[in-house]
Amino acid sequence: MKKWLFALLTVLVFAVPFGMTASAQSAVPNPIIITEETINDSFRVTNPARRRVENVVIDLQPGQSVISATITLRAPRGTDTTVLDAVGVYTPYIENGRVYWTLASATVDGVPATSDQISIINAALGASYRNYLRTSIRPGRVTEIVITDTDIQYFYE
Q1: Once rounded to an integer, what is the mean pLDDT over residues 108-129?
Q2: Is the pLDDT confidence value at 24 over 60?
Q3: I need a surface site. Which of 47, 120, 140, 154 has the fewest CB within 10 A?
Q4: In the Cβ-directed half-sphere of 27, how many Cα atoms lie within 13 Å?
Q5: How many angstroms separate the CA atoms of 122 and 44, rounded?
Q6: Which domain holds residue 20?
Q7: b/e per residue, 72-102, with b = 16+ CB within 10 A?
Q8: Of the segments 27-31, 60-64, 93-97, which one has the largest average pLDDT value?
């Protein structure tokens, strides 16, 4: 179970940048549109912060983002490393003009997460994400987020 949670928590790191891109600013187009290609070409995706994360792909689908990655877990001395394929499906919501992401479903090596595991991960993600936003970014003015097969559109006032 620890391997499973570690893999999912590592993939969660990739959901965070989506919310950061949508702070309302003056002199920017409304909506702000970010393409799937731009996201997948971004430094955060092509050069993950953790060396154990590889093959990261973000697949935008109507109303959700599917993030997949291969994660290599360190092995104790004398044993083989463990390589896991993790997939997380994230849906956005808006609170106080800011975009937050929730893990809707996940699999590690094809094994689906239980509702308890998803709840635990969402609680950890929500707490850390809110703390980061509260100390780093002023309240936004995002009013709507639309995800299509090709882009994310952030509407703001």
Answers
A1: 82
A2: no
A3: 47
A4: 0
A5: 21
A6: 2-156
A7: eeeeeeeeeeeebebbbbbebebeebbbbbb
A8: 60-64
Rounded mean pLDDT, 29-50: 81
Residues 6+ apart with CB under 8 A from 21: 32, 34, 152, 154
Smallest Cα–Cα separation from 6: which of 111, 117, 112?
Answer: 117
Tokens standing for residue 123: 């609680």
List helix spans (H) across 36-147. Answer: 36-41, 43-46, 115-136
CA separation, residue 135 to residues 21, 131, 139 (Å): 16, 6, 10
Q: pLDDT digit string (tens) for 77-90?
A: 777 888 889 899 99
SS3 content of the chain, % helix, strand, coil (to 5): 30, 40, 30
Find the helix or strand (DSSP H, E) in which 11 lies.
Answer: helix 2-12
CA distance 157 to 155: 7
Q: Say how many domains are in the chain.
A: 1
- Amino acid found at 30: N
